[in-house]
């Protein structure tokens, strides 16, 4: 996978999601299914999107004891997803269990002839610090008295050591992550807005062009596209600014 724009489909139903995507005409962008949509629709929404030709990032941010996350990943391995994630703060052991669960789930599906014989493991990435988190909140709420960039880089190193493919971070930390983990270690970066758009609940934000300059591999864009008067034009502008 190369650089790409992932649209955050933060809708409350499958019909609302498909209705939005129909506004993009023939385009079939990479899409993110988050907790709201997945909890409303379940695995069926993944099938609907894949049947339309979309790549799917299932953004459930698993965070639990290693055994629980391992078992959950075995279940998610049966879905035709392209990317999934966990919280890096769940520890290296938990991330290792997650990656192992995906492998074990895929192997089980292959042996049972579930029609997934040719599938590769979905990309698995770890959330470092949410882009809504500021330095002040990290220190006061989480009691982490380190620089944000240092914390993100440390979490990224742990994710790499656990065998994951990359991390979710702000574009502002992408260069540091690549410097420590290598250029092939993916940085998937939300908190991306067009200049002048409202930040909403995000704190560490950039434009698509800035994210490209800072070295992001994927950007996740929601309201700047989903809330635009012309979503297709907004998406195409985003791709032009980020991918070129």
Write the layout of secondary structure elements.
Elements lengths: L3 E5 L5 H9 L7 E4 L1 H7 L2 H8 L4 E7 L3 H11 L6 E5 L4 H20 L11 E5 L7 H8 L5 H14 L4 E3 L2 H11 L4 E4 L18 H7 L3 E4 L1 H4 L4 H12 L2
Parallel strand pairs: 1-2, 1-8, 2-3, 3-4, 4-5, 5-6, 6-7, 7-8
Helix pairs in contact: 4-5, 7-8, 8-9, 9-11
Sum this structure up briefly.
This protein has 244 residues and is an alpha/beta fold. The chain has helices spanning 14-22, 35-41, 44-51, 66-76, 92-111, 135-142, 148-161, 171-181, 208-214, 223-226, 231-242, and strands at 4-8, 30-33, 56-62, 83-87, 123-127, 166-168, 186-189, 218-221. It is 45% helix and 15% strand.
Commentary on this structure:
The chain has an eight-stranded parallel beta barrel, surrounded by six helices. It is built from eleven helices and eight strands. It is an alpha/beta fold and 244 residues long.
Which properties best describe this structure?
single chain, 244 residues, alpha/beta, eight-stranded parallel beta barrel, 8 strands
Rg (CA only): 17 Å
Helix-strand sequence: EHEHHEHEHEHHEHEHEHH
How much strand? 15-25%
Share of helical residues: 40-55%
User: Structural class, judged by helices and strands?
Assistant: alpha/beta
Mean pLDDT level:
93
Distance N to C terminus: 16 Å
The biggest beta sheet reads:
8 strands, parallel, barrel
How many individual helices? 11
Q: Give the overall form.
A: globular
Strand order of the largest sheet: 1-2-3-4-5-6-7-8
**Poorly predicted runs of 5 or more residues:** none
């Amino acid at each position: 996978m190369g650089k790409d724009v992932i649209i955050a489909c933060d809708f409350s139903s499958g019909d609302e999601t498909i209705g939005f995507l129909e506004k993009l005409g023939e385009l079939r962008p990479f899409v993110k299914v988050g907790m709201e949509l997945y909890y409303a629709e379940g695995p069926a929404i993944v099938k609907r999107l894949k049947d339309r030709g979309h790549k799917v990032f299932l953004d459930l941010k698993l965070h639990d004891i290693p055994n629980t996350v391992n078992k959950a990943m075995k279940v998610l391995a049966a879905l035709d997803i392209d990317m999934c994630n966990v919280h890096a703060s769940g520890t290296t052991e938990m991330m290792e269990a997650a990656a192992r669960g995906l492998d074990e789930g895929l192997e089980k599906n292959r042996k049972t002839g579930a029609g997934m014989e040719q599938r590769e493991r979905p990309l698995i990435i770890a959330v470092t610090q949410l882009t809504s988190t500021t330095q002040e909140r990290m220190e006061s709420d989480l009691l982490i008295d380190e620089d944000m960039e240092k914390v993100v880089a440390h979490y990224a190193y742990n994710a790499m050591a656990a065998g994951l493919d990359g991390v979710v971070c702000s574009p502002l930390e992408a260069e540091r992550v690549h410097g420590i983990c290598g250029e092939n270690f993916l940085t998937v970066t939300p908190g991306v807005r067009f200049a002048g758009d409202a930040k909403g609940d995000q704190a560490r934000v950039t434009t698509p062009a800035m994210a490209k300059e800072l070295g992001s591999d994927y950007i996740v864009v929601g309201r700047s596209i989903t809330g635009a008067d012309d979503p297709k034009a907004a998406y195409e502008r985003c791709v032009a600014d980020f991918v070129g």
